[in-house]
Design the sequence.
């Protein structure tokens, strides 16, 4: 895979002047620096189907991680107006058509997300699904995919488990199961924002465990590149 | 500092996203965030950061000060000498910098289980304290003051404050002023009442009682045909329907009458009598104690005492304090003991030489609660001869058996007058005390801790006083003995970590529960007894000992008060636990699952344990210096 700046090149004129272009101007993450120096935006998307050809984005939630801490003031949630009915997924995500009446457009949501993402590394739990939807939306809105740096807590955890010979499959890698392994509490409700916060806490936990603690009880944070 | 901090809007203009209500709900259940209104709570949640700490990490003050709330995991707080101050779990909060100000040597917070924290930055924390009085109060009142408020809390309701209307008889017998006395008497007999009201139309003209019939008719040789008007008491004392039973009692006592008419809107609506008042006072322990003294058989006492657990529930529910309840329960067991002794003396004949029946332990200290076993002994006059041994053996046996029948079970440690070791002439007791204090073996120290809390229950109290004097003079200057006693008091460290399940009993029927008596009340009484012996304080009741120690300058006022409050707090929790067990139909015990406590009660319990911990540190310093 080509590095991000190279892949962005062909879209540069299309996105010119948009929020996305300003995101692209930010310096690349410093992979060799301690992870706590990197700023993150942890996101979760809810959609009406797991199949990107059938489904639509219903809501986005995100929360910022600065200096190794989740900043709750940054927690944001946007509902997205859909063209079809919510259908079956409503049962899972507790969104109903009537809730969606207060919803904004997909374009607004993407704009706001990019605004919040400037200078940050995106984080998802199971990034491929969310990014497929987000890139489609970005393509519609900016004429280009997001092409932003990101981490995937599911992939991080899977690689780690495989490496230490405790491979987890399917259910063992879902958000709740991963959190339990790090002693994090279960959250009863689910929406894009609660899941984004849950993912952010999982990021903190995984990152702490990739680093060390010295004899005086000081934590030694891992480098950003060691999180993967 | 992060960019979000730099661009913080003014306080109050923000709130956390409604999608994170579950986080707000969690905060709203913790102290003291439960004091905040929903809007402030949402704004405060937005002010917070979430931090994750790995096991083994040590939190330092440099990490940005402020209030930290444990969301999950566990954290130990230790002082400069690495002594455990507290173990915090879910929903509990701490402010490291404030703790450091309070402890000169510095406090460290060590993560003992991976922990997720909510951190409220210091300026936000201070702003909240500034703006919200109840929130502030939680912090600026020190933990001991918080505890004192809880210990002194008292609600007012009492049976004697209820209105007379609630107990009066409203089905009244009335006669006209010209009704002949004979007819009035027949009406009273038919209705089985002892008083009748003489009504002139709607107006109450007077009252006639059984006594008037005796004194003003029979004794005065009046004709039964006389009009009732001629023998009635015209100047009638009466009460308003809203008057309290207490006022009724006062009026009756003051004017020597047993019947009081009750008026509502100036019309007669009922009558209240002394027996109505007695019925209303059924929960009065005086009533019970009087009845105990009237019993001629053990069985009678036993059946009277069966009502005590229910009475205790009533006393607690009407807001009587733990200290008073334990005094009353002790008064009841004293009465039972005295009555059993009187019954035994009546059967065995008068004692051949003087004796004193002494109560030990909680009965001695007047701090008994339900379920206490018996701790007692006999101090017999030195003139006792061998031929008298049989009398006292039979006396003791019959009283101890009687106590067991009445619900005060035999003592496991055999500290009972029926045991010949605890039934001795004064001189032998004195020699025993001297030998215990000369050679403080662990067994002797254990006996001493029961024995030194002694109080004369019945018989010649001077025997008990002489023994007490011997105890005080044998122990107060004996540093080796006091050091042994101090070790005993330190053997039961305050279980600061109970809320994390580490210190509670791990096995058997009482798994995961805490013994409030063993871990709470006993350490306090041990510490206070030690100080009392060290300063020749003759008082036995723990409150009285503390007061005497405070007045003698042996304990700082604040330490004495803190121990008093901690004891009352523990006794109150024990008592509440007993009440709940009683209401569930369980046998009372001192075991309590800390998880079943309310947040406030848990905080108070923790405060009480912190005070015990501090007091134990004081004991170590004072009595075990140089002993390791």
Sequence:
């Amino acid at each position: 895979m080509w590095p991000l700046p190279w892949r962005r090149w062909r879209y540069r004129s299309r996105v010119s002047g948009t929020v996305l272009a300003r995101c692209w101007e930010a310096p690349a993450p410093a992979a060799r620096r301690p992870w706590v120096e990197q700023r993150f935006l942890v996101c979760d998307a809810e959609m009406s189907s797991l199949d990107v050809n059938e489904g639509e984005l219903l809501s986005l939630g995100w929360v910022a991680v600065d200096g190794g801490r989740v900043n709750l003031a940054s927690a944001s949630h946007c509902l997205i107006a859909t063209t079809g009915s919510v259908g079956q997924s409503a049962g899972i995500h507790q969104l109903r058509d009537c809730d969606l009446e207060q919803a904004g457009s997909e374009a607004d949501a993407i704009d706001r997300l990019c605004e919040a993402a400037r200078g940050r590394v995106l984080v998802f739990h199971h990034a491929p699904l969310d990014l497929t939807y987000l890139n489609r939306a970005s393509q519609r809105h900016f004429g280009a995919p997001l092409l932003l740096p990101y981490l995937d807590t599911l992939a991080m955890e899977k690689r780690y488990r495989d490496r230490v010979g405790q491979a987890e499959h399917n259910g063992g890698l879902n958000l709740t199961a991963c959190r339990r392994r790090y002693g994090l509490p279960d959250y009863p409700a689910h929406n894009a924002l609660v899941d984004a916060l849950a993912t952010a806490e999982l990021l903190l936990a995984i990152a702490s465990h990739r680093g060390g603690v010295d004899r005086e009880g000081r934590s030694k944070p891992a480098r950003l590149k060691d999180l993967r | 500092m992060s960019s979000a901090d730099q661009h913080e809007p003014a306080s109050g203009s923000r709130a956390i996203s409604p999608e994170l209500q579950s986080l707000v709900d969690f905060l709203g259940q913790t102290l003291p965030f439960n004091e905040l209104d929903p809007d402030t709570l949402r704004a405060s949640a937005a002010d917070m950061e979430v931090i994750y700490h790995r096991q083994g990490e040590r939190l330092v003050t440099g990490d940005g000060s402020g209030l930290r709330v444990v969301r999950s995991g566990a954290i130990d707080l230790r002082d400069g000498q690495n002594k455990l101050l507290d173990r915090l779990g879910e929903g509990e909060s701490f402010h490291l910098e404030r703790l450091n100000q309070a402890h000169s040597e510095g406090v460290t917070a060590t993560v003992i289980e991976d922990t997720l924290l909510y951190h409220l930055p210091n300026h936000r924390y201070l702003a909240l304290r500034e703006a919200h009085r109840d929130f502030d109060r939680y912090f600026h009142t020190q933990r001991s003051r918080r505890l004192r408020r809880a210990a002194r809390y008292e609600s007012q309701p009492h049976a004697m404050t209820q209105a007379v209307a609630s107990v009066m008889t409203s089905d009244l017998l009335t006669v006209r002023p010209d009704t002949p006395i004979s007819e009035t008497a027949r009406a009273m007999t038919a209705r089985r009442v002892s008083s009748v009201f003489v009504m002139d139309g709607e107006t109450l003209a007077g009252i006639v009682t059984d006594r008037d019939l005796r004194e003003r008719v029979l004794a005065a040789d009046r004709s039964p045909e006389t009009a009732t008007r001629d023998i009635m008491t015209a100047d009638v004392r009466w009460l308003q329907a809203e008057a309290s039973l207490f006022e009724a009692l006062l009026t009756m006592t003051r004017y020597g009458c047993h019947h009081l008419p009750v008026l509502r809107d100036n019309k007669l609506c009922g009558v209240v009598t002394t027996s109505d008042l007695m019925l209303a006072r059924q929960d009065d322990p005086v009533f019970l104690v009087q009845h105990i003294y009237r019993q001629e058989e053990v069985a009678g006492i036993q059946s009277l005492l069966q009502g005590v657990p229910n009475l205790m529930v009533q006393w607690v529910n009407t807001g009587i304090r733990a200290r008073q309840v334990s005094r009353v329960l002790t008064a009841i067991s004293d009465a039972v003991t005295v009555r059993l002794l009187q019954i035994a003396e009546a059967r065995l004949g008068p004692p051949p030489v003087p004796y004193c029946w002494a109560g030990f332990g909680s009965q001695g200290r007047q701090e008994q609660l339900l379920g206490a076993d018996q701790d007692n002994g006999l101090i017999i006059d030195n003139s006792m001869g061998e031929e008298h041994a049989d009398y006292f053996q039979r006396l003791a046996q019959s009283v101890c058996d009687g106590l067991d029948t009445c619900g005060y079970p035999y003592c496991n440690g055999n500290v009972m007058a029926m045991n010949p070791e605890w039934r001795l002439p004064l001189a032998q007791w004195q020699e025993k005390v001297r030998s215990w204090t000369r050679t403080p073996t662990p067994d002797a120290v254990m006996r001493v801790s029961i024995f030194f809390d002694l109080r004369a229950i019945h018989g010649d109290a001077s025997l008990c006083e002489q023994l007490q004097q011997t105890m005080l003079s044998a122990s107060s200057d004996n540093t080796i003995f006091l050091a042994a006693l101090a070790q005993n008091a330190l053997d039961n460290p305050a279980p600061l970590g109970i809320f994390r399940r580490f210190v509670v009993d791990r096995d058997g029927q009482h798994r995961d529960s805490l013994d409030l008596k063993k871990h709470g009340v006993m350490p306090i009484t041990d510490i206070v007894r030690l100080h009392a012996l060290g300063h020749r304080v003759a008082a036995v009741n723990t409150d009285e000992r503390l007061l005497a120690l405070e007045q003698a300058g042996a304990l700082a006022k604040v330490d004495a008060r803190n121990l008093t409050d901690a004891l009352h707090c523990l006794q109150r929790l024990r008592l509440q636990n007993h009440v709940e067990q009683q209401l569930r139909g369980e046998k009372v015990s001192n075991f309590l699952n800390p998880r079943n406590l309310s947040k406030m009660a848990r905080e108070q319990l923790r405060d009480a344990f912190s005070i015990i911990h501090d007091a134990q540190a004081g004991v170590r310093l004072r009595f075990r210096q140089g002993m390791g």
In short: The CA atoms of residues 185 and 213 of chain B lie 8 Å apart. The radius of gyration of chain B is 32 Å.
